[in-house]
């Protein structure tokens, strides 16, 4: 589950899930929904394997989201379906989606970057919760 | 603690346009915070968490005089938007990528013309349509120019001067660009392959968000001699372009912040917000960022140059005369997200400091050696875009900026409303029709994008400009009204 956090100039997301893997997948879907007005129209036509490692779990989330954003900006590939495995502070994932098609995808806004401002990942009530703000 | 509830700390009025956050407000502040605003604007400022960010910036090592914020201040990430922070490397002063922002050298350029509004008005719709067709805007759009690796590196070292040989810039264009569009010490070797990949086909593209290209008309001249020096006269058509370094710059900032993880701690720097990540300006990490940031800044000047070039081509095609015949000369190009190593007088002594301008514009006064000779008597042009329904301003730098704000002034109207609030307010309205009723033709790639950028989402730019004029940071030269808007 994700919800939008209000911010004067930018925009943020609060994401919650039962497991860390689901949290990362949900954060990825939330990010897509910030970029595309109709994320449900993004079909899993091609896949990409990603492997990341970081020194802390919030940095791992940051790197994951930043990578999804970079793939979109440089290859115009919208990614919306994720299989995520996390082992300690290492992530392996298969991300699926398709090339942006203005005829079917209503692109909403350009996200310049993920920011570290109020970036958090925490265990809450037996599940996981994350917050992040993106620069628009 | 920041929250959308607003700022709960002290704001002491110093005079009609300045408010102080005393150094004693929170532990770690090395200097006061000073916010430029009048009594009305300060209430808007107080309702936003941004003043807390002004106080946080005051904690940075080597900061000089005060953590400053212009009247268009609003909540950013780490640094507030509208902030100015000068640090002295001789006193352990830092350089901070967050003090520049992701969009390195986001800035504004203004092109004037000899076209009278009355002559253009019947062709405006065709012109705006043609501009929207020709100039790539919106999310994920590449451009018509491609600069593979080697050429991209050349642009990052030479800036728009490298475009002269390609027939896409003139000597005069370079002369009227801040820093001549080239920062000494730019090193593409410090720019990652990922950043190069993002920049390859984005030079000459507008992007989205608050970036725009506007056809404007000079509606009011406030200072006749300065306007004459800038080549501006009432009823003449201008074009204002607002964009930055696109994905290349965003990636440079992202890479730098990643490289700085754990670095502030290694220098014993305690930060109130991770997004303020920094390193001593003279450290290896600091120098690496500076070299990459300068390369991205040069790229941004190339981007605005190519946006202007495409605009000239469209005007020529639609109006059937060459851009030279139409008198489409560059008035000036200014950066408003940048860090520059500049000489300033601090405590009576000349010093070189790192001036971080995060949503603030350089405003050098008359006679400053870094402004074009043609403008030396009136001061550097300062370009202040407002919202797309009201007005934009041309100002000129004044001596007060050197005494008070490290040669800086405001950069725009400043946001008032969150994007989600703007969207809620616009859910049943057609922003483009509302703009049309005000005489503005707007074309945007995304209807929702237009809603997020609606005029009501911004402060009144006139109020912001009144404050910087009264404070002596810059003087009013001319007010421009939008007639055609291209948004991403």
Q: Outline the biggest β-sheet of chain B.
A: 8 strands, mixed
- Mean pLDDT of chain A, as a whole number? 94
Strand pairing plus helix content of chain A: what structural class? alpha+beta
What ranges of chain B have pLDDT less than 50 throughout 5 or more consecutive residues? Answer: none
Shape of chain A: globular
Total count of strands of chain B:
19
Rg on CA atoms of chain A, Å? 14 Å
Topology record:
The complex is a heterodimer of chains A (136) and B (488).
Chain A: E1 2-6, E2 11-17, H1 20-35, E3 46-53, H2 57-75, E4 77-87, E5 90-99, E6 113-114, E7 120-124, E8 127-135
Antiparallel strand pairs in A: 1-2, 2-8, 3-5, 4-5, 6-8, 7-8
Helix pairs in contact in A: 1-2
Chain B: E1 12-15, E2 18-21, E3 32-36, H1 39-46, H2 50-57, E4 66-74, E5 81-87, E6 94-95, E7 107-116, H3 117-120, H4 124-134, H5 149-158, H6 171-175, H7 193-199, E8 212-221, H8 224-230, E9 236-243, H9 246-259, H10 263-266, E10 279-280, H11 284-319, E11 330-335, E12 337-346, E13 349-358, E14 361-362, E15 381-384, E16 392-397, H12 399-404, E17 408-409, H13 419-425, H14 431-437, E18 441-444, H15 447-452, H16 461-470, E19 474-487
Explain what you see.
The complex is a heterodimer of chains A (136) and B (488). By secondary structure, chain A is of the alpha+beta class. Chain A has one domain (2-135): Archease, Possible Chaperone, Chain: A, domain 1 (3-Layer(bab) Sandwich), CATH 3.55.10.10. Helix content of chain A is 26%, strand content 42%. Chain A has helices spanning 20-35, 57-75; strands at residues 2-6, 11-17, 46-53, 77-87, 90-99, 113-114, 120-124, 127-135. In chain A, the strands form 2 sheets. In chain A, strands 1, 2, 6, 7 and 8 form a 5-stranded antiparallel β-sheet that branches. Chain B is α+β, with helices and mostly antiparallel strands and 488 residues long. Helix content of chain B is 31%, strand content 24%. In chain B, strands 7, 8, 9, 11, 15, 16, 18 and 19 form an 8-stranded mixed β-sheet that branches. A 7-stranded mixed β-sheet of chain B has the order 1-2-3-4-5-13-12, sandwiched between helices. Chain B starts with 11 loop residues before the first strand and ends with a strand. The interface between A and B is large, with 35 and 49 residues.
């Amino acid at each position: 589950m994700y919800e939008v956090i209000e911010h004067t100039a930018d925009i943020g997301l609060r994401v919650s899930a039962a497991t860390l893997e689901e949290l990362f997948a949900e954060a990825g879907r939330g990010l897509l929904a910030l970029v595309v007005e109709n994320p449900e129209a993004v079909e899993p036509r091609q896949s990409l394997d990603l492997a990341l490692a970081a020194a802390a779990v919030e940095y791992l989330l940051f790197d994951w989201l930043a990578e999804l954003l970079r793939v979109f900006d440089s290859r115009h590939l919208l990614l919306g379906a994720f299989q995520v495995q996390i082992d300690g502070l290492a992530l392996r994932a298969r991300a699926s989606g398709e090339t942006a098609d203005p005829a079917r995808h209503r692109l909403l806004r350009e996200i310049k970057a993920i920011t570290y401002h109020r970036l958090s990942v925490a265990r809450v009530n037996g599940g996981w919760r994350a917050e992040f703000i993106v620069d628009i | 603690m920041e929250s959308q509830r607003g700022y709960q700390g002290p704001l002491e009025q110093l005079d009609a346009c300045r408010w102080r956050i005393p150094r004693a407000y929170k532990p770690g502040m090395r200097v006061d915070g000073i916010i430029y605003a009048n009594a009305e604007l300060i209430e808007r400022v107080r309702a936003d968490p941004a003043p807390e960010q002004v106080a946080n910036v005051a904690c940075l090592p080597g900061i000089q005089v005060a953590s400053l914020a212009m009247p268009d201040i609003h909540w950013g990430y780490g640094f507030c938007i509208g902030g100015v922070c000068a640090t002295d490397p001789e006193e352990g002063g830092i350089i901070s990528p967050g003090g520049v922002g992701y969009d390195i050298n986001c800035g504004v350029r203004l092109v004037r013309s000899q076209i009278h509004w009355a002559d253009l008005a019947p062709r405006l719709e065709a012109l705006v349509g043609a501009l929207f067709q020709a100039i790539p805007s919106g999310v994920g759009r590449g451009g018509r120019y491609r600069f593979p690796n080697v050429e991209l590196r050349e642009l990052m070292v030479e800036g728009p001067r490298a475009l002269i040989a390609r027939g896409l810039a003139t000597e005069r264009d370079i002369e009227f660009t801040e820093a001549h569009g080239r920062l000494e010490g730019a090193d593409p070797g410090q720019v990652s392959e990922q950043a190069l990949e993002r920049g390859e086909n984005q030079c000459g593209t507008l992007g989205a968000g608050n970036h725009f290209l506007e056809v404007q008309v000079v509606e009011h001249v406030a200072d006749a001699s300065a306007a004459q020096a800038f080549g501006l006269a009432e009823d003449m058509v201008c074009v204002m372009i607002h964009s930055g370094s696109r994905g290349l710059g965003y990636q440079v900032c992202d890479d730098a912040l990643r490289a700085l993880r754990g670095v502030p701690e290694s220098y014993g720097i305690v930060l109130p917000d991770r997004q303020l990540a920094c390193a001593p300006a003279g450290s290896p990490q600091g120098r690496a960022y500076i070299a990459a940031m300068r390369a991205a800044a040069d790229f941004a000047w190339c981007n605005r140059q190519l946006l202007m070039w495409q605009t000239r081509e469209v005007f020529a095609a639609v109006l059937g005369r060459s851009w030279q015949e139409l008198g489409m000369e560059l008035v000036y190009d200014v950066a408003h997200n940048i860090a520059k190593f500049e000489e300033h007088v601090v405590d009576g002594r000349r010093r070189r400091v790192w001036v971080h301008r995060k949503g603030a514009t350089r405003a050098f006064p008359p006679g400053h050696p870094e402004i074009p000779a043609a403008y030396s008597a009136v001061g550097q042009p300062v370009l202040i875009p407002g919202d797309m329904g009201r007005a934009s301003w041309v100002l000129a730098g004044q001596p007060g900026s050197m005494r008070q704000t490290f040669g800086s002034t405001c950069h725009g109207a400043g946001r008032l409303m969150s994007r989600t609030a703007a969207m809620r307010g616009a859910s049943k309205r057609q922003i483009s029709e509302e703009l049309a009723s005000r005489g503005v033709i707007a074309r945007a790639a995304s209807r929702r994008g237009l809603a997020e950028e609606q005029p009501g989402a911004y402060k009144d730019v006139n109020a912001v400009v009144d404050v910087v004029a009264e404070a002596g940071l810059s003087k009013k030269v001319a007010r421009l009204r939008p007639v055609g808007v291209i948004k991403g």
